[in-house]
Amino acid sequence: MNKKELRANTLNDLKKLNNKYDKENIIFNKLMHHSKFMNAKSIGVTLSMAHEFNTRFLIRYAQITGKTIYVPKCDYKSKEMYFTKYTSPEDITVDSFGIDVMNHDIGKGEAPELMIVPGVRFNKNGYRIGYGGGYYDKYLSNYNGYTISLIFDVQVGEVVVEQHDIPVQYIITESKEWHTGEIQ
């Protein structure tokens, strides 16, 4: 299958996912005990869509524990992604593509220590199929921090890897977690 077919099939599987809340709790508990999360002073994370791992509780928990949260924002004209500081739920707005973002650019250009990288489908080596814009791969090509993806088991499988793709360093699902290339 090509990227488009793999993306569509996985999104369909995600929309039919059973016990999503229970699976999210398992994944979140694993993240809470991960040393990179515990030690990070700043975290980059998306404002999730309904079919993805729900990041709202993660954001609130991280704030309570004193971490600074940054969320992505895209400049669709220049095809660049950057991060802005998460301030409060009242400051969330929807961009022209229907994606939740901050309604400001406070902290624009800051690079969080830890990046929670979204995606639709991942292979065991950390390569991913995103939503097709290439924004994360472009951003990650110059990112020096640590990357983790929080995904469901149904998101792991075959991935078409292209030359510009950047793998994540660690993956957590409801049933396992591993450094990419070393399933544990």
UniProtKB/TrEMBL annotation:
Under catalytic activity, the entry for this protein gives: (6S)-5-formyl-5,6,7,8-tetrahydrofolate + ATP = (6R)-5,10-methenyltetrahydrofolate + ADP + phosphate
Look at the named UniProt entry and state the broad enzyme category this protein falls under: ligase
Q: InterPro entries given for it?
A: FTHF_cligase, FTHF_cligase-like_sf, NagB/RpiA_transferase-like
Question: Which UniProt key words apply to this protein?
Answer: ATP-binding, Ligase, Magnesium, Metal-binding, Nucleotide-binding
Q: What is its EC number?
A: 6.3.3.2
GO MF terms listed in the record are:
5-formyltetrahydrofolate cyclo-ligase activity
Q: Which cofactor does it need?
A: Mg(2+)
Family label: Belongs to the 5-formyltetrahydrofolate cyclo-ligase family.
PANTHER family named in the record: 5-FORMYLTETRAHYDROFOLATE CYCLO-LIGASE, ATPASE INHIBITOR/5-FORMYLTETRAHYDROFOLATE CYCLO-LIGASE
Q: What is this protein called?
A: 5-formyltetrahydrofolate cyclo-ligase
Species this protein is from: Macrococcus armenti
